[in-house]
Amino acid sequence: MRIIAVVGSNRRGNTYSMVEAACHGLSDSEVELLHLKDLNIESCDGCLTCDRTGSCHMKDDMEKILSRMKVADGFIFGTPARWSLLSGELKVFFDRLNPLALTQSLKGKKAIVLVVGQTEGDEAISIENTVTSVKYFCESAGIEIVDVLVADGCLEPNDLITKKPEILNKCKLSSKKLFQSL
Ligand SMILES: Cc1cc2nc3c(=O)[nH]c(=O)nc-3n(C[C@H](O)[C@H](O)[C@H](O)COP(=O)(O)O)c2cc1C
Prior knowledge:
Layout: E1 3-7, H1 14-23, E2 31-35, H2 49-53, H3 62-71, E3 74-80, H4 88-96, H5 98-101, E4 110-116, H6 125-141, E5 144-151, H7 159-163, H8 165-181
Parallel strand pairs: 1-2, 1-3, 3-4, 4-5
This protein binds flavin mononucleotide.
């Protein structure tokens, strides 16, 4: 069983805490954590070569990640809400998955989605919109979402740990749910 966990925020903050906690629900041999800020991943240049060839001409860390994503069974996608959307970091990553998405290579794989934002109550619609934006990608790529976890009211990087520690356990349970679905 192979699961790839993606942290879609450059800072080591709330998204990182959620994804890390989810990884703790799995054994080390099952999960690989990718903090996008540590990787050299260029923005998609939109050349659409992958439409014709099924592969990407860009030479960066995404080359190896694409082959690992292709054989992985499941994914953990974590992002902060950014203007009611997924983060730019995760969007760049999703764009670069186009060679796999359009060859149906991700079809049937499973994922959990972890989202954090500063808004609360009625205003937390922006976090729900962020979830929707991640769902759009997953649905288009044929990835089945088995669980979604949202943490609201978290602005500063440690807010999740200090104000909402119960969410960390929920993240762990969510990854177990992912594992059981595979
Ligand atoms: C440019 C920008 C846009 C943001 N937009 C939203 C938003 O639409 N809704 C929300 O609830 N929080 C929003 N936030 C707050 C972040 O989601 C929040 O600080 C989150 O905890 C950051 O996660 P991180 O610690 O993993 O980076 C935004 C933050 C930034 C920097």
